[in-house]
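Many introductory courses stop at the sequence. We go one step further.
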Amino acid sequence: MNIIIYLLYIINYYLVYLLLKKYKILNYKNIIFLIILSNISFINYYFNNNGLIFLINYLLLIGIGLIVIIDIKEEIIPSFGLILIIISKILLFINNKLFNEIYAFSAFITSLFFGIIIILMMLLLKKELMGIGDLKLYAVLVLSYEIPFFFYLLFISSTIGIINVIILKQKKIPFGPSISIGYLLLELMLI
């Protein structure tokens, strides 16, 4: 099992390298940021000695890290980051043996509910509140939670976004980092 984890780790780092190179944001700050995130997963692995938990945390943190870096630089949410998060959520379902019809239906309803609420807000306010990438990121992050989690995430990430607007004094900022930080804060609160 350890060999498989290390091979996946190396393959994923190579894919991350190619992605950072593609967006021309391959620099030491971004690499150090991603190494720190991935080593959090290794620390968790050594304490729990559970390869699947390591893989879930690793994919989730690398996906979020890529989204933060690329959204700040390019103002897009990369599909590769979303795919890593989706894979981690599926592995979480499998690990917790939560993948039954009721839980899958609840996760689907939560994501659908979120999309409807955001689209209604954009129609009522007649302006774009966030991009499609941000909507996809929200939908992927709330996939394994109930509806109240969506409201908590929306509130915390919006608060972080407002603080960023005030501090940076810009009218338009990338919202992906605010969503990601809000999600990580909620995850820490749930531990």
